[in-house]
Each structure stands twice: as structure tokens, then as C-alpha cells.
Amino acid sequence: MALLGVPRVVAHDLGPPPQAVNAVLVFVPVAVWIAVALRKRVPSPLVTLLAVGLVYGVLLGAVHQVLWTHSFAGGAPELGGNLAGTLSPAAEDLVLRGASMVSSLFTGALVGLISGLVALGLSRALHRK
């Protein structure tokens, strides 16, 4: 299910898609995650979708790494402020790519957590006895 989010990441990194297309690529995968969790009546939608979100975060980070040079074709990002010029270009690239990976994992976990909470609430509302 996490793979459903990859087209949006690719589209974003290759150049922003039209707003309507982006909205579909953002919301449809999460809606599918929730629908599948409800349809399959998973015992713990929160844990299940958090796990899906974490896998999505790994995929998000991996795609960003693969498309890094394309995304920053005008020049790679650089550290600024007090850190500007303090690291070698290789170390700076490693720091920025690492931060991108951490950010991707956090984003995936957050999307998974929110979708899991929605699925949990809907599951409880739909399956009350």
C-alpha cells in the first residue's frame, strides 16, 4: 500500500504537477489505505497504518535521494548561517541528504499516524455492536 504514494513523490521531484493532479496523488493513496484497513477489519488500524506510513517514509526518502540531482538541477542546497562553509562539500551533502531522509521518515510516520487515527475512529463508529 505504501507504493501508492510513490507517484506523487516522483511527480513532485520532477516538477510540480497541476494542482488537481497533485491533490489526487496526495489524497487518493491515503484514502485507499484507510478503506483497505476498514474493509479488511484489521485488528489495529492505527498500528497497521503507522507501519504503512513508515514504509512510505522510507520510499519517500529513497525517491528523493534518487532524484536529488534532478530536483536541485540549479545547484544543490547548501548549509547557511553559522554553518555556511564549515564543512567539506561531501560532508555538507551528507548532512543535507541525511536531513532529507529523516524528514521523509517523519512525514511518512505522521501520514501513517493520522490516517491510522482516522481509520480507528471510523472503524469504531462503523463496527459498534
What does this structure look like?
This protein is mostly helical. It has five helices and no strands. The longest helix is centred in the C-terminal third of the chain and has 38 residues, at 89-126. It is elongated, with a radius of gyration of 18 Å. The chain starts with 5 loop residues before the first helix and ends with a helix.
Helices and strands: which structural class?
mainly alpha
How helical, in percent, are the residues?
over 70%
**How far apart lie the N and C ends?**
29 Å
Oligomeric state of this protein: single chain
What would the average pLDDT be, to the nearest integer? 93
Number of helices: 5
Q: Helix and strand succession?
A: HHHHH
Task: Estimate the global geometry from the Cα principal axes.
Answer: elongated
The number of E-state strands comes to: 0
Rg calc? 18 Å
Sheet with the most strands, sense and barrel status: none
Low-confidence residue ranges: none
What portion of the residues fall into strands of 2 or more residues? under 5%
Question: Quick gist of this model?
Answer:
The protein is mainly α and 129 residues long. Helices cover 73% and strands 0% of the residues.
Task: Give the topology, please.
Elements: H1 6-14, H2 19-39, H3 45-66, H4 68-71, H5 89-126
Fill in the keyword field for this structure.
129 residues, mainly alpha, 5 helices
